[in-house]
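ok trying again, last paste got cut off:
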Amino acid sequence: MTVEQNIAYVPELLNKKNKEKTKKVVSKWMEIVGLSKELRQRYPAELSGGQQQRVGIARALAASPEILLMDEPFGAVDEITRGQLQQEIKRIHRQTGITILFVTHDIAEALKLGTKVLVMDQGSLQQYDTPDKILGQPATDFVKRLVEKERGIFN
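nice, full thing came through this time. structure:
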């Protein structure tokens, strides 16, 4: 499927008889995630890793969900692209107000992206708080070790 077909997949299911509305939805989300309109008829294999991730994000958002679940969404991209996509996710959240539940094993990423962060260890809740409180007031030894590791402090 082309970029346009990928992003339009769910809106077409929701708006079967309104192709113009679907085209507007595709245009809106391509713009929001930073994909140029010249990419509409391209195929994923013709895109960079970052562009492919943006297509996936646009496809997920095109149904206008109240909550978006992102499970390790940047694991397959290089560090530079990862940083760019993290900034894009923060901007999209600010711009749209959509709640994003972001699952990651990278505490730095969680602290960078989260307004609230839930830290778990082997399925057990360790702390649920703002990034500042997690950094400044770790609730458990496990969280303290994560914070120290993030800061480069090794005991």
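cool. The radius of gyration is 18 Å. The longest helix spans residues 79-96.
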